[in-house]
Amino acid sequence: xxxxxxxxxxxxxxxxxxxxxxxxxxxxxxxxxxxxxxxxxxxxxxxxxxxxxxxxxxxxxxxxxxxxxxxxxxxxxxxxxxxxxxxxxxxxxxxxxxxxxxxxxxxxxxxxxxxxxxxxxxxxxxxxxxxxxxxxxxxxxxxxxxxxxxxxxxxxxxxxxxxxxxxxxxxxxxxxxxxxxxxxxxxxxxxxxxxxxxxxxxxxxxxxxxxxxxxxxxxxxxxxxxxxxxxxxxxxxxxxxxxxxxxxxxxxxxxxxxxxxxxxxxxxxxxxxxxxxxxxxxxxxxxxxxxxxxxxxxxxxxxxxxxxxxxxxxxxxxxxx
Amino acid sequence: xxxxxxxxxxxxxxxxxxxxxxxxxxxxxxxxxxxxxxxxxxxxxxxxxxxxxxxxxxxxxxxxxxxxxxxxxxxxxxxxxxxxxxxxxxxxxxxxxxxxxxxxxxxxxxxxxxxxxxxxxxxxxxxxxxxxxxxxxxxxxxxxxxxxxxxxxxxxxxxxxxxxxxxxxxxxxxxxxxxxxxxxxxxxxxxxxxxxxxxxxxxxxxxxxxxxxxxxxxxxxxxxxxxxxxxxxxxxxxxxxxxxxxxxxxxxxxxxxxxxxxxxxxxxxxxxxxxxxxxxxxxxxxxxxxxxxxxxxxxx
Lengths: 321, 300
What we know:
The structure holds two protein chains of two kinds. Chain A is built from twelve helices and no strands. By secondary structure, chain A is mostly helical. Chain B is built from 14 helices and no strands. The model of chain B is unreliable at 1-14 (pLDDT under 50). In chain B, 71% of the residues lie in helices and 0% in strands. Chain B starts with 7 loop residues before the first helix and ends with a helix.
C-alpha cells in the first residue's frame, strides 16, 4: 500500500521536475540582451569588437544556434549527467562549486532545525497545559511576532545586540563543524537563532493546538483517572501523539528554510548555496544562478516528498490524496 | 479570545452573490468582537490611510539629502532620526507605506486574477485539464519561499513591473488550490444540478454561482497574501534586487543603513518594526477571518 503510494508520488514528480527544469532553463533566456553575450559573460559594449565569424563560432560553441527545444534537451541531458557547465567568473565546474557550498547550508539548516524544535516544543506544551495564563499568552505573542518579523531584520537586531553591543558572538564568518565544532557553534549561533525562530513561531502554535486537542481526548482522561503522574500523561501520551502531526509542519518548514537561507546566509556571510546564488546574481554569473536555483528547488521537492511519505507511514489513516 | 462563529449554514449557503454581501457585513460584526482581529484590522487600515495620505503625514521631503545631519538619533525635528544621507526616517517610512501597498496590491491582484480562474476551471473541468493545471501549480510551488521571486527578478531585473510579476506569479498556486478545492466541494451540490437543468451555461454556473462560494476562504488567503507580498518586496529590496534607490522602500531602507549599524542602530530599528507591525496586522486579520469562516478550526 505504502509502496504504491511512493511509486505514484514519484510518477507525479516527473512532470513537476520537467517543468521546474524548463523554468530554470528559460529564466536565463529571459534576461534582456543578447543571450550569447549573457551566457558567456561578455560585456554588451564589446559586441562591436567581435567579428561576425567569431560571434557565430561562440554561438555554435554554446549551442545557441540550435532550435530552443534542442537547446533545452541538450541542457537537460547534461544536467542529468551532473554537468552544470562552467562558472563565468572562475571557469570552474558549477557542480563542484555548488557541492563545496552545500554542506555549509545543510549544517546551518540542521542547527536551525534543532534550535527551532528546542524552542517550539516546550513553549507549545507549556502554553497548552497552562492555557489562558500569562505563559500561554507569552508563547502566543512569540508565535505571532516570530511569524510577522522579517528574518533579515531580526538578524540585524541580533547582530546589533550580541555582536556590536555585547561582543559575545561574531557577526560574520564560518568554520566547519567537522574541523572546529566550537567555532562552528559560535558562528552558527546567530543565523541559526534567526532561522530557528522562523521555524519555531508557527511550530509553537501548532504544538499548542495539537496538545490542546490531545489533552481533551478520552485516552488522556483515562490516563489521569488511572492516577498516572502528570509528567507521564503529558509527555508519554499527549505529547507523543501531538508530535506525529507536528512532523509534517517541521518537515515543510525545514524545506522552506532552504528558500529563506538565501537572505540569512547573505547577511551573515555564510558560505552556503544561498549566498552563492545571491553572489551569482550580483556578478551576473548566470550558470551559477541556474545551478543554485535548480538545486535548491530539487532539494525542496524531495524533502516535501519524504515528509509526505514519512507522515503517511506514521499514520496510515491519512487519505492517500 | 472567545467569540461566536457564524452559523454554518450561513456561510456555506448556496445562495447567489447577493448573500455574499450579507456575509461580509456579518463578518465585520464578528471581527468587531474578536479583539486581536480588530487590532489587525486597525493596523491594516492605518497602513492604508498612511499610504494614501503620505504627503500630508510626512514632516520632511523623504528624498531630501542633508549630509551634515546624517545618522541622527530620534529628536523633535526628526521623530525617528535620520539615515546615512541625512534623510528623515519617519517621512521615508510614511512614503514607504505607499511603495509597499502599491507593490502588494498589484501582486495580490495579479495572483488573484490568474490564480482564481485557473483553480476554478481545474476544479470544475476535472480530468486532464485539472491535472495539467495543477502540475503547473506544483512546479511553481517547487520553488521554496522567496526563491522564485529572487530567480525572476534576477532574470528580469528589479523595479516595479518585474516585482509585480515576480510576486504575483508566486501567489498564483495558493489561490488556485483554494478555489479548486472549494469548487470541487460545491460542484456536486443540488443548486449546480438545478442550474444545469434550467439550461445555464457551464461558464455562468462556474463564475456566477459556484465561485461566489469561494469568497470566504479566498478573503483569508488574500489577507495573508498581502503580508507575503509586503515581506517579499522588502526582502528583495533588502538584497538589492528589488526597487532601486532612492525609492522609499522599507527593505531598501534597511539595506542602506546596514553598514552603519554600529553608528546608528535606530536607523535600522524603525523600518523593520514597521514591516513587522504591518505583517502582524494582516496575519491577525487573516486569522480572525478564518475563525469566522471556519469555526471548526477555531475550536482547536
